[in-house]
Amino acid sequence: MHRARMFLKRTLTPVTILLVPHSRTRTISIRVPVVAVAASVCLFLIGTAFVVSVSVRAVEYHRMKEKLSLVSAQFLEMKGTMLSLKQAEKDFRKLFSLKSKSAVLESADPGDAGSLDMEVLREQIEAAMQSVSEIRRYIAEQKDIHLATPFGWPVAGTISSPYGYRNHPVREERKFHTGVDLSVPSGSEVKATADGIVSFAGWTENSGIVVVAEHGHGFSTAYAHNRKALVRVGQRIARGDAIAMSGTTGVSTGPHVHYEIWRNGRHADPVGFLARR
């Protein structure tokens, strides 16, 4: 009991706090019990710890919020890319009847927004991009071959002399005819049968005015006995462009176009390429 009284007496013992102003005003003294001072110090420390803890949590919250926003943006971007790639691949497969080289896209559900496995999503995008890139490359190659392959009729005429051995109409000797003769009225437009570059446009002794075009992929074409060339050497031409006016120049018995196709340095029968007018 005595110890308890002594403890209470000490805790309730007043402590004088002097406030000494720098001016000439009187000093101020405050008398507070020791227990009040101790309580104030404890409350100050607890308040400081609480403020620091709240500040740390606030900083962590803002960092996590920014990270979440970044991840969400990346996910939405990748999801949009996935949908675009799937649509592109679907269009290619529909147009060219090609099967996809990747089954990943077929198993990926575009409506599943709950999965945020970024690594798997990246792998799916890389696989899809590779598949679409291969399809695009294939299409580009096939388009180049298509544009370079002689195709259709250079003039709207009829075949008066076919490809192969024949009796020459002027020299009266059996010779191999390396092209076809297409009978048309003089002055008809002669059109290119494939995209390419003009490699010759001028006069030759036997074939008169000739236009030769190089098309790539081993193809070249020649158009002979023209009245006039409409193109010059080095000029780019497209399928269907008028390149000459038909005539009967050189060794010829009448107005026509001598049409030849060469592939890999060897002449070929043009009939197989005259499938469409």
Describe the structure in your own words:
This protein is an alpha+beta fold and 277 residues long. The protein folds into three domains: 2-61, no CATH class; 84-148, no CATH class; 158-273, Glucose Permease (Domain IIA) (Distorted Sandwich). It contains four helices and 14 strands. The strands form three sheets. Strands 3, 6, 7, 8, 9, 10, 11, 12, 13 and 14 form a ten-stranded antiparallel sheet that branches. Strand 9 (208-216) and strand 10 (219-229) form a beta hairpin. Helix 2 (34-96) packs parallel to helix 4 (118-148). The longest helix has 63 residues, at 34-96. It is rod-shaped, with a radius of gyration of 46 Å. The termini are far apart. The model is unreliable at 98-116 (pLDDT under 50).
* Number of helical stretches of at least 4 residues: 4
Return the string of H and E elements: HEEHHHEEEEEEEEEEEE
Count of the separate structural domains:
3
- Look at the structure and give the CATH class of the largest domain: Mainly Beta
Which second-level CATH architecture of the largest domain applies?
Answer: Distorted Sandwich
Work out the strand percent: 25-35%
Major beta-sheet overview: 10 strands, antiparallel
Summarize model confidence as the mean pLDDT.
79
CATH topology of the largest domain: Glucose Permease (Domain IIA)
Gross morphology is rod-shaped
SS elements, strand count = 14
- Termini, distance in Å? 125 Å
Helix content: 25-40%
Please outline what is shown here.
The chain has 277 residues and is α+β, with helices and mostly antiparallel strands. It is 39% helix and 28% strand.
